């Protein structure tokens, strides 16, 4: 059990260009996959996100998964969405997660349940992601529950709290304003949606810098390596994701057997491009179902060894 | 208005199994306006029931308002003869009938869909979620509680694209609309405020609601 602060927070504060990865908990009660993926990712990433019933499909809980990641020597980043729990359950789970050693928290709205495998479920959305960030921060400082009741100073959960932002969703002009709200609510780090349209991301970062937000939060650019043309094309159809035509054409032009290789190349180029954009504090590599490729991407992008 | 939609005929017939004499009770308010349970729909349902169940006796009536105790008396005589009442009003009307006739089987012939209005003939859209704590003054007159699929109070989620909601292209993103309208009104500053967690106790979450107004009480 990690008693102290978030390791990810320390690295970012020290000015290291951070690398985070992602582990998708299984649709079953087995933890072998989590341990296996942690082993793959822990030496090459500074934190591992545990998705929270991603795309509204029932999976092993992100908090339980975080315990397995800790046991395997990783640095878990718990994802928490607003879809399935009200403020009572969320706070309770945050206390529990902290007591189990989790130190990083990513606050999300959550995919609508109509995308998942329980489309007839009721959704909650008692809070939105901005309110969740605020609540999570206030548990530590000033140390109150959402209703204002105090928490004993020695038992306050002091998470390193982050949020997500999608520079490719709309209204484009509103995205930076909304990011500013998340930062004002207390988001210390931001992991973005997968970036394929680098010029658009650069434009967004310029707006972020103009608003001074990069000085108040750590922005980690999202990287999603595509295994094939089919996978890339599928991503281009996901709401809120933009894949430029030129990139689709590039992948399509590569013979099928070599597309995975091209996917790695595209990801590495994107990481290198992001490193050159002022205000970008790191990358978040989302290689769900392709975790074994993360070490190579990090290495080829020149980001090894990771700081201890 | 309360927008309703008639249930499929087999579902209504299922509830009539073993019944011999029914009253189809319409309402002159919302369900008349949204063509679900007014005079025309009551007559149509009676005809459909008689076609499917020639053995059934069916009376009809259209009450001024099923959601208002004082207008239910008009149904007393017919209700006394029947072994079931079929309400074509909203769920409020059906429950008012059930309360008035404790020994008579009452069931709904419509589904109460939402609080909304008619965009054009034949198209109704939801506008109010009855949350009990209106925020329209903060959101440019567009309700994020009911028109955003996730009831977000602090801006759009990451799935908003080209003005559409991530769950269905036929649904407009409420936050895109709020943004555009506040921009046109020169009030984008309203979007910079972090709105606090909503007090849901004034909504259904606070338990069944009751409103008492001494000034209009008799």
Explain what you see.
The complex is a heterodimer of chains A (308) and B (218). The model of chain A has no long low-confidence stretch (mean pLDDT 96). In chain A, 39% of the residues lie in helices and 15% in strands. Chain A has a single domain (7-300), classed as Alpha-Beta Barrel (TIM Barrel), CATH 3.20.20. The relative contact order of chain A is 0.14. In chain A, strand 5 (160-165), helix 6 (172-185) and strand 6 form a beta-alpha-beta unit. Chain A has helices spanning 7-13, 32-41, 62-71, 87-99, 129-140, 172-185, 198-210, 229-237, 245-252, 259-276, 294-300; strands spanning 18-23, 47-50, 76-81, 104-108, 160-165, 189-194, 218-223, 280-285. Chain A has an 8-stranded parallel beta barrel with strand order 1-2-3-4-5-6-7-8, surrounded by 6 helices. In chain A, helix 10 (259-276) crosses helix 11. Chain B has 2 domains: 2-113, 3-Layer(aba) Sandwich (Rossmann fold); 133-197, no CATH class. The mean pLDDT of chain B is 96. In chain B, strand 8 and strand 9 (168-172) form a beta hairpin. Chain B has helices at 9-15, 30-33, 39-52, 76-81, 91-100, 144-147, 174-184, and strands spanning 2-6, 21-27, 57-63, 84-87, 105-108, 110-120, 123-128, 164-165, 168-172. In chain B, strands 3-2-4-5 form a 4-stranded parallel sheet, sandwiched between helices. By secondary structure, chain B is an alpha/beta fold. Chain A binds chain B through residues 82-83, 87, 109-112, 114-115, 123, 125-131, 134-135, 146, 164-166, 169-171, 173-174, 177-178, 180-181, 184-185, 193, 239-240, and chain B through 149-163, 166-168, 173, 175-176, 179-180, 188, 191-192, 194-198, 200.
